[in-house]
């Protein structure tokens, strides 16, 4: 019987983190489930992973705290004898929007960077010796915000741009032992947006998104988890990639228009 591998997924109580933990559990990984606030949801996420056959650890910790990051790495290695994967999913934002780009004060800006960027860096630093020994993988959950410069707040956009740049740097620095990639979702159908902007505003945003993207659909947590699991458990020749999971949003609205023959320029008509 093949020994199960092990992974840490930060912020894995709900949404993308919980879906990713489950996807890895189903692929033969033991999981460290991390949360900072949502204890009840984290317990449920852990139970789901256990039902899928995984041995689990449940740890509360803020990734902005370096000691908490080191404690997670140490606990995983103590439990399973090594570490095969790290998924940096924990993230926060402030919903200010482009019209109110200057609404955030310095403290709020620094808090977002502290979790989204420094937290990811600290987790990588804590886990790298163990991941190197296992020839493991790191996947950073970024956002299309970091690639296109649009998002919930200027601080969030800046943080995800930094995550993308850090992903490229670490892919070079940690090769050949560790593969480092990032996924960059667009609109996700989780409570993240609903809680941030309200149900009515979210439905309006979702409708606009579906009408303006070539594939016409928002991303589910399971869509993201599937991509992450592939990068962790397969993709043996893939590193330094920023994979956009945005239904073609980065192509612009024109792509959605040109797919209709009745609206195509005359030069494209038979």
Question: Gist?
Answer:
By secondary structure, this protein is an alpha/beta fold.
CATH architecture: 3-Layer(aba) Sandwich
- Domains, number: 1
Topology as a string of helices (H) and strands (E): EHEHEHEHEHHEHHHEH
- The CATH topology name reads Rossmann fold
Write a structural description:
- The protein is built from ten helices and seven strands.
- It has 270 residues and is an alpha/beta fold.
- The chain starts with a strand and ends in a 12-residue tail after the last helix.
- Mean pLDDT is 89; it is low at 254-270.
Give the helix/strand layout.
Elements (H helix, E strand, L loop, with lengths): L4 E5 L5 H12 L2 E7 L3 H13 L4 E5 L5 H15 L4 E4 L17 H29 L2 E5 L2 H5 L5 H20 L5 E7 L5 H7 L1 H14 L8 H13 L8 E4 L7 H6 L12
Parallel strand pairs: 1-2, 1-4, 2-3, 4-5, 5-6, 6-7
Helix pairs in contact: 1-2, 1-9, 3-4, 4-6, 7-8
